[in-house]
Specification:
The complex is a heterodimer of chains A (108) and B (122). Chain A has 108 residues and is an all-beta fold. Chain A has no helices and 11 strands. In chain A, the strands form 2 sheets. In chain A, strands 2, 4, 5, 6, 9, 10 and 11 form a 7-stranded mixed β-sheet that branches. Chain A has a 4-stranded antiparallel β-sheet with strand order 1-3-8-7, with no helix packed on it. Chain B contains no helices and 11 strands. The chains are: A mainly beta (108), B mainly beta (122).
């Protein structure tokens, strides 16, 4: 099983600042990595797939990078609607598909 | 309208069974492999099961193997999750999820249902 580790668990950021979220895989997942956003009481929303491709309708302030075992989600200038929990998910080596534990981005 | 609507959740005692359903609309259901993903209260996302577009293959997370089965009725555009021998640790919101792209084994999820809650408690 590929274990996905996200850090930090909580990230405190001021609106307008940059946020950098990390995701590490316990083995090589190539670029088969997705990022999701989940706000309280809402369902997950796909942001990024293929490690760096934005899903339809996702603002360009969200960007993904990385390959292999180290991945990053960057939010260039945090807006109020971006405060949420973010999950990474690998789909290279399955079953099982695996998610990271999440990073909560909160208002500083 | 493209959507997934889950139903069938509830409160059961340990050892009991539940059958969840997920009704799809607005897209060609039979073109997509379909997944169940769960989220325990206050916790992260956990993939549970996958069934291929034609029902020919199913895969499960180890913790539910032998207890859960997944099936689909493409004539009814409906996905099912039969959960037997339920345990307290199965308590979660259960989502059905559809991959963004049909027909390929890129299992990332562009469409989610709103989920149905399952509580296992004595």
């Amino acid at each position: 099983e590929v274990v996905m580790t996200q850090s930090p668990a909580t990230l405190s950021v001021s609106p307008g600042e940059r946020a950098t979220l990390s995701c590490r895989a316990s083995q090589n997942v190539n670029i088969n990595l997705a990022w999701y956003q989940q706000k309280p009481g809402q369902i997950p929303r796909l942001l990024i797939y293929g490690a760096s491709t934005r899903a339809t309708g996702v603002p360009d302030r969200f960007s993904g990078s990385g390959s292999g075992t180290v991945f990053t989600l960057t939010i260039s200038s945090l807006q109020s609607e971006d405060f949420a929990v973010y999950y990474c998910q690998q789909y290279d080596n399955w079953p099982p598909l695996t998610f990271g534990g999440g990073t909560k981005v909160e208002i500083k | 309208q493209v959507q997934l609507v889950e139903s069938g959740g509830g409160v059961v005692q340990p050892g009991e069974s539940l059958r969840l359903s997920c009704e799809a609309s607005g897209f060609t259901f039979s073109n997509y492999g379909m997944h169940w993903v769960r989220q325990a209260p206050g916790k992260g996302l956990e993939w549970v099961a996958l069934i291929y577009y034609d029902g020919s293959n199913q895969f499960f997370i180890d913790s539910v193997k032998g207890r859960f089965t997944v099936s689909r009725d493409n004539s009814k555009n409906t996905l099912y999750l039969q959960m037997n021998s339920l345990r307290a640790e199965d308590t979660a919101v259960y989502y059905c999820a559809r991959p963004m792209i049909r027909g390929v084994l890129n299992w990332y999820f562009g469409l989610w249902g709103r989920g149905t809650p399952v509580t296992v408690s004595s």
